[in-house]
Design goal:
mainly alpha, two-stranded antiparallel sheet, 7 helices, 2 strands, about 60% helix
């Protein structure tokens, strides 16, 4: 089964990437994404219907921006110096929509991870 646009957008968000960098292991210099350590522990937002619809649209926008560069690899698309402006903008819009669903705006990656850890603690304590 394929992921929904909503799931795709969340997994491609700044929040999920920050969580992944914090929780995942490494193999040499590469991240080791684990369903148990990264995906299953990630504290997903609880968006309103409107927020979820917006996130779905930003996920579609990321895929649409990628489609304009069919001959590019993901490594090329996501290279800091080569990343097409429309793809960068699609990700920025996605990040803003995801932050809105969390009801916050993080000033840094460490602030994002700190907030997500607080949310995770609430989840495991059954307080969500």
């Amino acid at each position: 089964q394929y992921a929904s646009y909503y799931e795709f957008a969340i997994i491609n968000s700044y929040a999920h990437m920050a969580w992944m960098r914090f929780t995942s292991g490494r193999l040499e210099s590469r991240y080791r994404y684990s369903k148990d350590l990264v995906y299953n522990t990630f504290p997903w937002p609880s968006p309103s219907d409107g927020q979820k619809s917006k996130i779905e649209q930003t996920g579609k926008n990321i895929l649409e921006a990628r489609s304009h560069f069919p001959d590019w690899t993901l490594a090329e698309l996501y290279d800091d110096l080569m990343m097409p402006i429309e793809l960068r903008q699609a990700h920025q819009e996605n990040d803003a929509a995801v932050e809105d669903a969390y009801g916050t705006s993080w000033s840094s990656e460490s602030a994002c991870v700190e907030d997500l850890l607080r949310r995770y603690q609430l989840l495991i304590n059954g307080l969500n």
